[in-house]
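Protocol step 4 of 6: structure prediction from sequence.
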Amino acid sequence: MPAGACPTRSIGFNTPWALIILYLGGALGVNTWLMKGFFDTIPKDLDESAKVDGATHAQIFFGIILPLVAPILAVTGLLGFIGTINEFMIANVFLTDPDSKTLAVGLYGLVSGERNNNFGMFAAGSLLAAIPTVALFQFLQRYIVGGLTAGAVKG
């Protein structure tokens, strides 16, 4: 090891932080545009009426706006989670050490060999990999459905 070299790298090949930074950079534009479109649908009258009633900017945002945008926050969180857990290409390029492979790359390794096709383990791993996504969707479903009914107008 050269003099002054750090034995533990926090960012670089085969490190989780490097992969997290890459994922954040890739999803930032899409999620920001998606949330901006949703924020544009909230009527400005709500903001103005709260200002007239004497609410501060923080009270308006946390008390009025944030509960109304909970569905888009839930959707972008779910899409970000699904995109990250299923991402293959970037993880396959940047994680070269077998001990640092992600789930998708590890599952691919089970069936990528010519004679080492272990489809039973691959199918079991794929089913187990779906459990966190389904659990997160079940948790976030109340926010998504609640947001759909919150903006409804009584007839």
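Step 5 (inspection) to follow. The chain is about 70% helix and 0% strand.
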